[in-house]
Amino acid sequence: MAAPAGTAAIPHGDMAEILPSLPLEIRCPPFPLRRYKGFWLPEAVLTELASIHARIQPRTSDIFLASFPKSGTTWLKALAFATANRARHRPSDVDHPLRHMNPHQCVKFMEMDLDLRRRDVSSLLEEFEALGSLPPRLLATHLPYCLLPESFTRESRLVYICRKVSSAYGVDARCFTLEEAFERFCDGRLYGGPHWKHVLQYWEESMRRPQHVMFLEYEKMVRDPGGGLKKLAEFMGCGFSSEEEKGGVVEAIVKLCSLRELKNQGVNKSGGNSNQAGGIKNEAFFRKGDIGDWRNHLTPAMANRLDKIVEDALQGSGFTFQEDISTTID
Fold first, then answer.
1. How far apart, in whole angstroms, are the C-alpha atoms of residue 291 and residue 75?
2. What's the pLDDT at 294?
């Protein structure tokens, strides 16, 4: 099979040389962004691309979780981790890892879950390599599809979750007004942006190779979390048995990973992941979880403008975002 478009012949090894010439965006703290291959990404992430491509050794049993920032990443990590590890960590266990660890500590980010000032990417990948193949190894990424390692896209299964309007438009609300954040989102000048281009690349690959790429829509998952979870488990190669379904395991995992349950865990009320750039607090990963909450913030004119931008960008692709109806992950 030919290499996926954009994943071959990318001169990541020359990044230090070409980085200063790439378009720069400094208005998205805590890190400067550069536009590379059509996407805005942190300089620190771009400098690690060559190491990631060279060092990662995926297995056919691996599951990679991909998303645009603020699009249901935390929820997907929790669901995938609880499902893959249910044999040794029953969802009802009082000492279940998700009751004392944030989902981002259970499933690491390939390109950003390390302090780039103190560790190099090799240490994270060495930890990943040391894991066994059962249950499936889980690793996450916010990288666009065109920048994933070719071995990654060729060998492993990948689950992508998308959301019609990513929460908080993918920018730090402490640094911008709503109007400023909206402008960044519309311009695509934010981590991983443009949003619709990020989504479209994964959707197109899921159409080409559905056995390797599963495309989930946040809105559909919220409306039917049990049904979505069963499809996710099947794709991951660890589907639920009839006995498990009759025994309520699916419902137990959905409850364990619900926004209300996760928010109420002590670890998610305080503390944070010191490995992630910016020292993000755990509580910041849990917002309302509502579908359609954007209606409470965007004016009709803003909504129409964004709809037109996305409609034009997706024209002819065959993909459309689902209409949303207000619902909450509870």
1. 14
2. 60
